[in-house]
Amino acid sequence: MKRIVVLLAFILIAATSAFAQKFAYIDTEYILSNIPEYKTAQTDLDNLSKQWQEQVERKYSEIDKMYKDYQAEEILLTEEMKTKRREDIIKAEQAAKDFQKSKFGVDGELFKKRQELIKPIQDEIYKAVKEISSIGQYAIIFDKSSALTLIYTNPKYDKSDDVIKRLGYSPSQSK
């Protein structure tokens, strides 16, 4: 019986200390919207993406024209000419796919450019969150804007403005 009482006391102490932990949350979308460098980087990435997408669309439009021309002239072409045209179309399609992959693929230029421009900003945010967590002795800081779903958040625990201030900016936008 004493063991059960001791075990229950231990569980009660552990539960009490677990509830004493401090929690907070941030909204990275809001934080990023208050960082001019992020806005500039995002605009640059959007422009680059749009430019490359237009190039991809032009390449596929040219391929479509090649195919339609081939279909219109097919009856007039020799077998050798038909084979050559089909090979040209296939090569053009492969070149367009390779171009698209080199720009938008997993290790494409857009991904690398995003890493180059956005990652340093994200690292600074993480550093500021870590400092705020240490100063405020928070056990956990959630990100309201990520995949984590928070049904209700009390604004008193929102540390987004603290992160913006720690980064050297002044919060300007309303949430």
TrEMBL record:
Lineage top rank: taxon: Bacteria
Organism: Acidiluteibacter ferrifornacis
GO biological process: protein stabilization
Family classification: Belongs to the Skp family.
Signal peptide: 1-20
Name of this protein: OmpH family outer membrane protein
GO cellular component: cytosol
One Gene Ontology term of the molecular function aspect: unfolded protein binding
Any Pfam family matching the protein: OmpH
Keywords: Signal
